[in-house]
Amino acid sequence: MRSILTILFVLCIFVGISHAADPRQKIKKLENHIAVFDFEMQGNADKSLIRALADSVRLQVVKSGRYEVIERSSMDRILKEQAFQVSGGVAQEKAIEVGQLLGVGKIILGSINLVGKTYYFTLTLVDVETAKTVGIEEDICKCEVDDLIAASKRVVTKLLDNCAMPPSVPETASIQAASTVQQNIPSSASMASTAPVQQNVSGSTS
User: Fold this and answer.
1) Which of 156, 93, 97, 86 is closest to 121 using CA atoms?
2) What is the pLDDT of residue 6?
């Protein structure tokens, strides 16, 4: 009896040490949870649009009812607790690692490229567990900056429709995200005061 108690005591100590050795414990993954990352701005695309467009996509995913969306504030809090820093667009490999820390089943990554006067808006849906791309969609918008919110809605709708998953969460709108979207979008007049966009830009879309 004493030997059995000794073995159990040693096992408890070993388990405690193994947990203490890893400061970044992964949260239990929820398959229907998703995280939307800030977008990568390429070419001459205005980097001030990053947060507004990500918020717009986040809001559309919430309204679709297909996923439980991790709010930006919750993402920031969890990453801070795990001593993990993320700012702006991130590479897919790093985003998957962050998704594992957040405990989500899927992540959405995006990029916006401005070539001449045409915006190329790309969204990618990635499975965190397999690290495989589930779907990718692009919207081409020869438009003013004010119209990019509409483009973001189109591309996320196509992405979700083509990677259909039955609605699993109640449809709840994020009021904070909705208000942030319009507040962070600069007007056409303010964009006109900046340096003119180069008409000939070479490079591939992503």
Assistant:
1) 156
2) 56
